[in-house]
Amino acid sequence: xxxxxxxxxxxxxxxxxxxxxxxxxxxxxxxxxxxxxxxxxxxxxxxxxxxxxxxxxxxxxxxxxxxxxxxxxxxxxxxxxxxxxxxxxxxxxxxxxxxxxxxxxxxxxxxxxxxxxxxxxxxxxxxxxxxxxxxxxxxxxxxxxxxxxxxxxxxxxxxxxxxxxxxxxxxxxxxxxxxxxxxxxxxxxxxxxxxxxxxxxxxxxxxxxxxxxxxxxxxxxxxxxxxxxxxxxxxxxxxxxxxxxxxxxxxxxxxxxxxxxxxxxxxxxxxxxxxxxxxxxxxxxxxxxxxxxxxxxxxxxxxxxxxxxxxxxxxxxxxxxxxxxxxxxxxxxxxxxxxxxxxxxxxxxxxxxxxxxxxxxxxxxxxxxxxxxxxxxxxxxxxxxxxxxxxxxxxxxxxx
Length: 400
Fold this sequence. Notes:
It contains twelve helices and 19 strands. It is of the alpha+beta class. The N and C termini lie far apart (65 Å). Strands 3-2-1-9-10 form a five-stranded mixed beta sheet. It has helices at residues 42-53, 57-70, 83-87, 107-122, 141-153, 165-172, 210-223, 256-274, 308-314, 341-350, 354-361, 376-399; strands spanning 10-14, 18-23, 31-34, 37-41, 77-80, 94-96, 99-100, 103-104, 131-135, 160-164, 178-183, 188-194, 197-198, 204-206, 234-240, 243-248, 293-296, 302-305, 364-367. The longest helix is centred in the last third of the chain and has 24 residues, at 376-399.
C-alpha cells in the first residue's frame, strides 16, 4: 500500500521541552517548537468582556471581535501553540505543559500540539501519511493505548508505529546494541539497547535535565542581585543616534507562569552561550578567581558570569551541588536518591547481562539537547575511565 517513495511517513517526537516533526528519511525535522502551550480560560475572557462592555462603544466593538475569535463555549479554554503564539503576551494566559513527572497528564494539550504540527507546520492531511511516533523508554501501556486511540480515531492515520527514543537513537548511529544517555529538558535517562530492544530492568532515570539547570542558573543570578526582565515588560527607545533608553511597561494581567516562561527563555540562552562542563569536579576555591564572561540581556544590561558557568553544568555529575544554590532548598529532599551521570551509566550497565557489558561500555551514545553542552562528552568519558580503573584496581587487590 505504501510501496515506493510516493507517500512519506511522518515522524513525531513530543519531548518534554520541544516537539519535533518532519518526514522520514530526511536529515532534520521540518518543525521544532515548544512542547508547552498558552491557555486562556474562556471564563476570564468573558468576565473581562462584561466589565469592559459598560465602558465605551469602542470597548464594545473590541469585545465583539474577541467573542467571534474565541470559537469556544463559555467555561472552556483556548490554546495557543507554537513559538510565535507563545512569544506574544496575552492577558490571563497561563503556560501549561502536557507532562507531569515525565508522563502525559493532559491529552487535550497533546492533541493541540499534534494538530499544530500537521496543519500549521507540515501542511499535510494525517489521513494520507503513516505515522512514526517516538516515545520515552518508561512509557506505560495505558499511554500507548491512548496514543493509538487518538491517532486512529481522530486523525484517521492509515498506519502507526511507536518506537522507543533510545532505540531510534541507537539505529540512527548504525548500532543495534548501545547505551543511550538521553539528557533532555525534563529529565535524564540512561537506557541500554540490545538487538533493537530496550532492557527495561536496567533503565536509570534522574529528574535533572535542562530545565532544572536553567532554574538553578536563574536562582543563582537572583541571589547575586541580577534580575532578568521578560521581553514584554520593557521597550527600548532611541534618545540619540546609537543611544537607547529602556522604558518599563506595566501589564498587571500577566500570569506568573507566563512571566516565568519568558524569563526561562532568556536564562536558557545564557546557559547555552556561556556554560560548559568543567574538566574536573567543581571546587569553590579553584573556580573562585576565574575570568568573568559578559552576556548582554535583551534590555541592554550587561552581566558578568563567573564560577556559575562551570558550577551549573556540574550538577549533572554531582547533584549535591544544588544544596549550595539559594532558593533550591526544596530539591534537598530528593537529593540523596539522585545519582550523577557516571553513576547512572555504571548502575545501568551493571544491571545488564555480563556478556554484553563490554559492548555497552564501548558504544555509549549521547542524545538530547542538554547532552550537547560544551565539554560534557569529554568530562563523562574521563569520569567513566576513572571509575572503570578504580573497579579494576579493586578487583585485582581483592583477588590478591
